[in-house]
Structure prediction request, 765 residues.
Amino acid sequence: MYGRKVKLRFFFVVLVLTALILTVFLVLKTLEENVVYFQSPSEIKTLSELSEKKIRIGGMVKKNSILITVNEIKFIITDFKNEINVSYTGAVPNLFEEEKGVVAEGFLKDRNFFSAIKILAKHDENYMPPEVKAALGDK
Amino acid sequence: MLYSVIGHYSLILGLCFGLILVYLSIKNFQNSKILNSKILSFTFLQFFFVVISFLCLVLSFILSDFSNETVFNNSHSTNPLLYKITGTWGNHEGSLLLWLFVLTLFILIFLIKTKNQPIRYKILTLIFQQIIIIGFFVFLIKTSNPFNYLYPIPKEGLGLNPILQDPALAIHPPILYLGYVGSSIIFSSALAATTLNMVSKKWASHVKKWVLISWFFLTIGILLGSIWAYYELGWGGFWFWDPVENVSLMPWLALTTLLHCILVLEKRLILTSWVIILSISTFTLSMCGTFLVRSGILNSVHTFANDPERGLFILIFLFSLIFISLFIFFFFHKTNNNNLSNLFWLSKETSIVINNWFMMYFLSVVLIGTIYPIFLDVLSAQKISVGPPFYHKLIIPFLIPFLLFMTIGPKLKWIKSNLDDKIYLITLLITSILLSLLIVKNFDSGFLINTILISSAFYLFFITLRDFFTKKYTNISQNIAHFGFSLLILSILFNNLFSTEIITNLKVGQTFESSKTKIIFESIDQKKEKNYKSIIGNFSIQNLQGKLENLSPELRIYNQPNIVTSEADIKTTFISDKFIVINLVPNQDYFNVRYQVKPFMLWIWLSVVLISVGGLMSFFRKEYEK
Prediction:
């Protein structure tokens, strides 16, 4: 039969391999669950089915669309082809402004209504998030 | 104008000296028993010219010389002097010059300070280091020259990004770079030692100094960035798992692992391959960090430059370095397995190895979360982002065994050991569990995981604390660092569990009332500073006991560039931070108010300081200077 050392080493290798496979599986699964996809208002219009998952929507804040009350901020994100209504409770970043780029993270209620849980805005006047740039096309 | 010319030619001279140095070193390497004295003088000259070049850039910034493109893009004549100076490294070109400055400084220190090591090893390290330095010189001069002219000369600059006009962020890049660049010395000397087949205990204790000092600066650098994000970005958090933060965390994790491995190597002469691989990957990750941040590939809260040519250059440079190092590793490295056979399960080295695996696991999680979106974007043009839940889910559960090994590991002896003092180990474990049950008992969700997590953190906390008093520790700096780590985990946990937040929109004069807190928006003041106007909101916060607290958050509207930043007002005590920040949506009457009570915030910072002090103490310990 094999010696104790060989058995031990064999056991060790199996242990490491199992741990490795489990880890890879775990990481991939968590990644799949927690990835947030980015979509433009036009892409949402063409969605065949609405997913329950968290997504990000990016575009411009439409002119004259911001409406603030004590509890809530409402505004419209547009990519100049389609638009979507957003309602949001929470803190807005400094550069949140009408006719400026914005990214909202949250959940779709339907094709025209989005409930945001986080708002990100660009960080300086020259910088536009690449996704927003892409979403706005040539504009 | 004059300074730009001097700076530019100093850079070219520096590059020439780099080439001369490589030539001299190769000659010296082939046929000499003593270090060619010219090598030291040329290294010094190279350093000298980089300093001249750097000073020229600083002077151009101080004098607001807008004929220099970098100054024009990143400074303004109304900026305060401090931010004119720090603007030097607040941009791509200047920060690369700073990299180069630290690179040449470190190799000079290395040559002077390294004694009792073979001459060939010193020369070879110099050659590897010069390859990196020359790469950076070419990169700087070719793609991102800080001394480009502008003609006609603009009257006024574009100004420094206001969020960078802050004392913590002013010194954050230099400190961080000391850590990043320090790892380049580790990289070069690891390659040199592998090539000469002299990876030994003696080499380990020599290179350990460099590991410790880079690790210290990296830790402090990350801390500064984190403190800045806490009060400047106005989200009230200190870590967002933002790609830019992740790229500084990855080298830190690798370096921390290396720090522990090198101890094992120093004492037991095992894990040699592991140490070499870690040395290579730490520097590679630092380079990756620079590449990802500077190339504009990452979209994040603070993206800087956007130039594909730069990205491509760093990428090619990076891959050639990885290729060279892997080649050297596989070609020259000889493993000696004979020592592994007496590796016992219950020993210090085993527990260090196990914790290294955990650390590598954390590193891979961060790496995947950071680069997966980039890959997906390139492969399928799908835009995604990976949020904090990903990291939390994958990292937090594994902190439990990690903490336990951290507690038990240092109690064990090298080679083979039994646990002494079992009674008090068990007593303290029970105390920790009871204590955390008491704290968590009112929680509905995540009861089990929170209890176990807090227990294990408390366990480490108590055991390291007890060791301070009973003087049972084997190594005081290690005990301080581990104690700091337990404090860090505890503070973060309590901070997460017990933070409260109120977000509301208020007009001046309005009051917000919840069951526990009343926020009164009393008034606003306006103030005019040299390069910004500020709006200061005056708030009174009343808690359940009727105690009043006045807080005055500020909004700064900078002239050039025209950007609004919010300065949170934070009342810090040892128990908790009261944090308030306001935002103004243009053309609206309402102010967006965010009020947070964050327990143990101060302890998060203090514990990181404690951790780094542990590293620093180990650096200054005499007994390693053999």
Q: What stands out?
A: The mean pLDDT of chain A is 81. Chain A is about 30% helix and 30% strand. The first strand of chain A starts at residue 35 and ends at 39.
